[in-house]
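Internal tracking record. Fields below are filled automatically when a chain is submitted to the structure queue. Please do not edit lines marked as system-generated. If the sequence contains nonstandard residues, flag them in the REMARKS field before resubmitting.
Queue: standard
Priority: normal
Entity type: single polypeptide chain
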Amino acid sequence: MQGTRHKASLGRYFEDFAVGDVYEHFPGRTITEADNIQFSLLTMNQHPMHCDHAFAAKSEFGKPLVNSGLTLAIVLGMTVADVSGKAIANLGWKEIQLVAPVHPGDTVYAESEVLEKRTSQSRPTQGIVTVRTTGKKADGTVFMTFVRSALIPMRGHGVEDKL
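SYSTEM-GENERATED OUTPUT FOLLOWS
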């Protein structure tokens, strides 16, 4: 008996996006204290709110905050499988809003809504897709939003199609 071969695929082609579609990214991610400290050290962010419990305990938050660069990186990474897995390039991020604190131990989730798509004027086999991504904690609290645009190949014109 011969089975059918299935090739794994990451992301979507330009044609697969529709304005108004919402992608609920899965899985979520629990951010640990080790994640926070390692990212802060790696990026040379020495703010004591990320690594000094005694300092953070005296703040209005009462405990350490997760480095906002880390939350942005994690939420952005969560979107790759649905939004930019086939992307040729990220074209930019804008309107990054940090609207609630994230603490070590919080589990975060994300979703992205397609705001716009258009064929590239200079690259006829590619298009530009713009999404708004929302980061939410497990309790539903929105902690971050941002808008991002990516250059996405049309079906038959991606790197994956050449493999």
